[in-house]
Amino acid sequence: MSVRDNITRMKARDQLIAKKLESADIPEELKGKPLKLPQMNFKISLEKLVQSMYGPPWYALRARQVEDKVDGLMNKVAKEYKNMIDTLGMNAEIFAQQWKEYIGSLQLEELNDLIERHNIYYPVEANLSIDLKTEGFLVGSTAWEPKEKITTGGLLERFPPDIDIAITRGTI
Q1: What is the mean pLDDT for each group of 10 consecutive residues in the chain (172 residues)?
Q2: CB within 8 A of 95, min separation 6: which ones?
Q3: For residues 65 and 59, what is the distance between their CA atoms, to the nearest angstrom?
Q4: Do 144 and 94 belong together in one domain?
Q5: How many domains does the chain have?
Q6: Which of 14, 25, 84, 109 has CB 3.0 to 4.6 Å from 34, enough for a Cys bridge?
């Protein structure tokens, strides 16, 4: 089917739709003119249509869950960091000791398990392409990087037990 045939078919469809509408429903400036309906310049496969009926894909839900849990953890740690500095800030040694104990007491296994599952299944579930040169996965044309696990060392680096470093960085 040529482009001209397609345009003719679309105009005929618009005219049929316009005839079925009651004249009271059509604004004066549009009476007698074909309706302009949005056209899609791409096709959606039946497979994608069926998948969309069941909501977002698992990898997207899991990625969102990881983001929410990481954000929640970071907010919780930041709040406790500020709280501890406000109460123990005058005594740097006690603050450093208690801060390290607090970070060590955090339960990170469940979150890291979720991150690990996401890193394992995401490339397959999202059907990522493979860069033949690097043999790594691509998201579009960008190299995919697995999500980093949350570690006590990483938290102590972001929220240092040394108050002077925290002040210098502007962490407080």
Answers
A1: 58 63 66 67 77 84 95 95 84 89 95 95 91 89 92 93 74 62
A2: 84, 85, 88, 89, 161, 163
A3: 10
A4: yes
A5: 2
A6: 14
